Amino acid sequence: MLLRLRVSLPDRPGGLGQVARALGALGADILQVTVLEREAGRAVDDFTVSWPGNTTSAEVRDRLSAVPGVRVEGVWPTKEVPGSAPDYDLLMHVVAEPGRGFATLVDALPGLCGAEWSLALAGDAVRHASLSAPAVFDLPDPPTRPTIRTSDDLRLMLLPVEREGLHLVIARSEGPGFHRAELDRASRIVGIVAALAPSLAPPS
To answer: What pTM did the predictor assign?
Structure first.
């Protein structure tokens, strides 16, 4: 079982080690640590861990919250396998089959972003959707630039692709809201896909 943990901790020597020891005591195998931000004396890190037992999210929160200065911002399942190169794999698929570029992108975004589903909207119509995505999605006030929102208990990233007349929606119902570092990464990936296939039209 793969889980993502988002933890805010004091940005000082030994802080990361305390969290690692607490996770080890719970039986977690830390596969990856991603630093999302470091400012004002604190760091926000995403841990990807392999969990062999039946530990609950509440137990993880309680154990880590007992570490002085640590705040747990979220615990949620993930499909992203650390050590792989999903960004590059996605771009290779787009290069190989540009006519399906945005469909390939939409299918890949949940795994890339620790999300549950994604879809591409053209106006009110869903042009392509990943597994688990709704068949219909209402997006009030579509943004003109990459945006993070919360709506109906969903954490959303909204990525407009003006040239294609699309809005990409990435969603998760568990865990914290998307971080600006996640938004920046997703925006760069979308921009590269558009640059690789500038005349790409969304599939019907």
So the answer is: 0.78
